[in-house]
Amino acid sequence: xxxxxxxxxxxxxxxxxxxxxxxxxxxxxxxxxxxxxxxxxxxxxxxxxxxxxxxxxxxxxxxxxxxxxxxxxxxxxxxxxxxxxxxxxxxxxxxxxxxxxxxxxxxxxxxxxxxxxxxxxxxxxxxxxxxxxxxxxxxxxxxxxxxxxxxxxxxxxxxxxxxxxxxxxxxxxxxxxxxxxxxxxxxxxxxxxxxxxxxxxxxxxxxxxxxxxxxxxxxxxxxxxxxxxxxxxxxxxxxxxxxxxxxxxxxxxxxxxxxxxx
Length: 262
Ligand code: 4FV
Hints:
Subunit structure: Homodimer.
Bound molecules: ligand 4FV
Number of helices: 9
Radius of gyration: 25 Å
CATH architecture of the largest domain: 3-Layer(aba) Sandwich
Main location: cytoplasm
Largest sheet: 5 strands, parallel
Function: Specifically methylates guanosine-37 in various tRNAs.
Shape: elongated
GO molecular function: tRNA (guanine(37)-N1)-methyltransferase activity
């Protein structure tokens, strides 16, 4: 998979590309990555990439000419790549989109700065607009790194044996179960016994239950979007009956009886 970033700050990327799983994926040829400086496509001696907005107002807009030539060059180098503009106006980035993008041959990231890019670039040179969240950044560079990171780890071979994308949070619209490692007792806090039992069926059951309860407590919206397996339905029903028992047995005597108890 080929990543090309179009930016006026190419120096931001080597630290990201030269560390960790991204570095290893580049070394193993799983991905390739390069940065193109949009300023190299300017024609004035000040290498100007921005100008005042038509219609007035504050801030500056990225000029279309240098961007258009930079995109044409990137596309010539990577013809099967998809050109993506990082913008708050884009479709929300999530694990689904990461899985989708991890299947394409290449991505060309257009990293805006200032107030954004001239609209004619969006109209004629952009295949996809993606937003990493409903907030405004000073530039699209960090957003492109987030997408490169989430997509790279989904490429076959990128995650060595010690990691796996299969049990990712969100991969099945649930949050991951809790993780523990040595020491068994950390400042008085013990690792759950089941994880020390060696009983993998019980461990799997515990992990599923903890990821369901965490999702229920922290991101119930995810559960609402997700089909539940018979086993998961069974777990949720057990919780309901436990909660029902608590309500039945723990209600304070003089508290007015739960509704419906005329
Ligand atoms: C952004 C986002 C983002 C907007 C103006 C760059 C900045 C500046 N990109 N998700 N949120 N971009 O805020 O992707 O040009």
